[in-house]
Known about the structure:
Largest sheet: 8 strands, antiparallel, barrel
Order of helices and strands: EEEEEEEEEE
Number of helices: 0
Number of strands: 10
Distance between the termini: 29 Å
Oligomer: single chain
Amino acid sequence: MTTKSAADVVGIWRLVATRAIDANGTQVAVPFGPRGMGLVTLTDDGRMMAVLCDGRKSLPEGARREYSSYCGNYTFDGSTLVTTVDANSDPSRFTIPQVRKVRFEGERMILQPPPAEMNGIKVIRELAWERVTTASL
């Protein structure tokens, strides 16, 4: 396995796939719906911002559109991305660092947040990103 550096995550990335799996590895949900949209920008000086949403034009009756955005300073040690959030669409994230395990599959960067509960089931979420550009904003 090749060691990754901060330079490997710098750039603008677009969301291309999401999934949530249970302890048995069975897919139980698709975070941000079947047409998830998102961008994450990671700068070479350690600043990041992310915006994600359910990108469907319309939702089923009674459904709530998933949306998340945050920004802050980040560190990357080759396998873990930690963001100290300083602005966010969800005030509960102001008090805790956002920790993501990182792995690369070909040209994709896979971010894995800590396990979470969805509909009463503990799940592992994965978000797959493809680089749009290596430019640092």
